[in-house]
UniProtKB/TrEMBL annotation:
This is Tyr recombinase domain-containing protein. GO terms for molecular function: DNA binding. The lineage of its organism: Bacteria, Pseudomonadati, Nitrospinota/Tectimicrobiota group, Candidatus Tectimicrobiota, Candidatus Entotheonellia. It comes from the Bacteria. The keyword Acyltransferase does not apply. It comes from Candidatus Entotheonella gemina.
Length: 80
């Protein structure tokens, strides 16, 4: 799949559910944040392939993220 195809696909689904400004890379951020929250920063670092833990902390650790905010978020992905 080309970058343009991925971009168009993500934008199409985002519009269908009323979301603006969603990019394909946002999914990586979501997964990184979820890995950090559920399994710890080291597991997220390994899964994301970061050489330096500082990179993971900078991009994927959201101290201000309210607990439970993402629970059940991806239960409906199969319906898109």
């Amino acid at each position: 799949m080309s970058r343009t195809s991925a971009w168009c696909l993500v934008q199409g689904y985002a519009q269908q559910v009323g979301l603006a400004h969603v990019k394909p890379h946002d999914f990586r951020h979501f997964v990184g944040t979820e890995l950090t929250r559920r399994h710890g920063i080291r597991q997220a670092q390994l899964a994301l392939g970061h050489k330096r833990i500082e990179t993971t902390v900078q991009h994927y650790v959201l101290d201000e993220l309210e607990g439970g905010l993402t629970d059940g978020l991806y239960c409906c992905l199969g319906t898109l």
